[in-house]
Design goal:
Blueprint lengths: L2 H19 L4 H18 L6 H13 L14 E4 L6 H16 L7 E4 L9 E3 L9 E3 L4 E3 L4 H9 L14 E5 L5 E3 L8 E3 L14 E3 L3 E2 L2 E5 L2 E3 L4 E2 L2 E2 H8 L9 H7 L11 H19 L4 E2 L1 H17 L8 H4 L23 E4 L5
Parallel strand pairs: 1-2, 14-15
Antiparallel strand pairs: 2-13, 3-6, 4-5, 6-7, 8-9, 10-13, 11-12, 11-16
Helix pairs in contact: 1-2, 6-8, 7-8
The chain binds arginine.
The site of arginine (ARG) has 9 residues, from strand 14 and helix 6.
Length: 361
């Protein structure tokens, strides 16, 4: 099948579905599909209307098999940045998105969509997330986030230098076309962070733990009706376990369970004391407590799982089958206490979709 034919097929399928969901008439859908078919014949591609872009991005959230937060797919704010001309322009759009989404802690889900692949102003964001901590060193001795080792090294090669703390916010790295990427320090006011304290244990602050307020995934490709957008950073709000049961506790990330266990004087000489499990609970309580205390949106895994089951019901009522990847949907703490544990999901990929793409560095 030729490229053109493939785009045409995907476009027609998307437009049919989207226009139906948007309650357009059948004539409107037919007319638009015809117009797009002619555009593809003429130019090899087509341009989404804002309405198509917006609904497509929302459908892609709805179709994301790994996301437990999909109940809120219709609330996604969609910023159209397809007219961005260069790296600086892109950086400014991103800062605006970050300020809108962070909203002093009352987090609002949003996405900014940059020029489509194939257009002359196409860009690529090198960062995995817009806000992430640098990682320095090698396997033996790591300072900061080990998940950022490669990007940190790439930033240093581009001339950036961090302070060397555990929580250095990486710069934003934007590449236009095949040019050398440019980096931008994130303006301080766009990065909200939360220092961690514990609801009962006053000494918890001595651990000096913190995390940033908003997860902005910035390295996934958005595909809508055959058109791909390599730069389409999006955000929701955090689920507590992402930070407390993974980022800060994975042994190959911040590995903080031993420190928490020592603080709470747990018996670390035997597995049967369940010190890791107890430390996990204290750390996760601290995450939820601290975000709440600082007025930053966050959801616990029990509530998120309940919301997901509501999403399933809502989709069923609309006659749509929910797809999902079970191993990602179950929370990393007490998974069998949630309803998701006891269900199974088909992990097939529906379009529009967010996809992982090869790293550019
Ligand atoms: N798990 C990632 C992290 O801990 C964030 C992924 C997106 N999460 C979200 N709640 N939208 O940074």
């Amino acid at each position: 099948m030729t490229m053109r034919k493939q785009i045409a097929e995907q476009a027609a399928a998307f437009l049919g579905e989207a226009y139906f969901e948007l309650e357009k008439t059948e004539e409107d859908a037919k007319r638009r599909i015809q117009e797009v078919m002619q555009e593809i014949d003429r130019t090899g591609t087509y341009v989404h209307t804002y309405e198509e872009l917006k609904h497509g991005a929302r459908m892609a959230w709805r179709n994301n098999n790994r996301c437990i937060g999909r109940l809120f797919w219709q609330t996604l704010e969609v910023f159209d940045a397809r007219d961005t001309d260069d790296e600086l322009d892109a950086a400014n759009r991103i800062f605006q998105h970050m300020n809108y989404a962070t909203n002093n802690g009352k987090v609002r889900p949003a996405i900014t969509i940059f020029p489509a692949n194939g257009s002359k102003n196409r860009i690529r964001i090198w960062n995995h997330q817009l806000v992430r901590y640098a990682g320095y060193g090698n396997k033996e001795e790591i300072v900061g986030d080990s998940a950022s080792l490669a990007l940190t090294a790439a930033c240093e090669k581009l001339g950036w230098k961090g302070e060397g703390t555990r929580y250095d916010v990486l710069p934003l790295v934007i590449q236009k076309g095949d040019q050398k990427p440019k980096w931008f320090t994130l303006p301080e006011e766009t990065v909200l962070e939360v220092p961690l304290s514990h609801p009962e244990n006053e000494r918890f602050v001595q651990l000096g733990l913190q995390w940033y307020a908003v997860p902005f995934v910035s390295d996934m490709e958005l595909e809508i009706g055959g058109i791909s957008y390599a730069a389409a950073p999006f955000n929701g709000w955090y689920m507590g376990t992402e930070i407390g049961a993974r980022n800060l506790s994975d042994t190959n990330r911040y590995n903080q369970l031993p420190a928490v266990a020592r603080l709470f004087q747990l018996d670390m000489t035997t597995n049967t004391s369940l010190w890791k499990d107890k430390a996990l609970i204290e750390l996760n309580l601290a995450v939820l407590h601290s975000f709440k205390k600082h007025g930053v949106s966050i959801v616990d895994h029990h509530t998120a799982a309940e919301q997901f089951l509501r999403f399933e019901k809502q989709e069923q009522e609309k006659g749509r089958q929910v797809t999902g990847r079970w191993s990602w949907l179950i929370p990393p703490m007490s998974p069998a206490t949630t309803g998701i544990w006891h269900r199974s999901y088909d992990d097939i990929e529906r379009s529009p979709v967010y996809r992982t793409q090869p790293m550019p560095y």
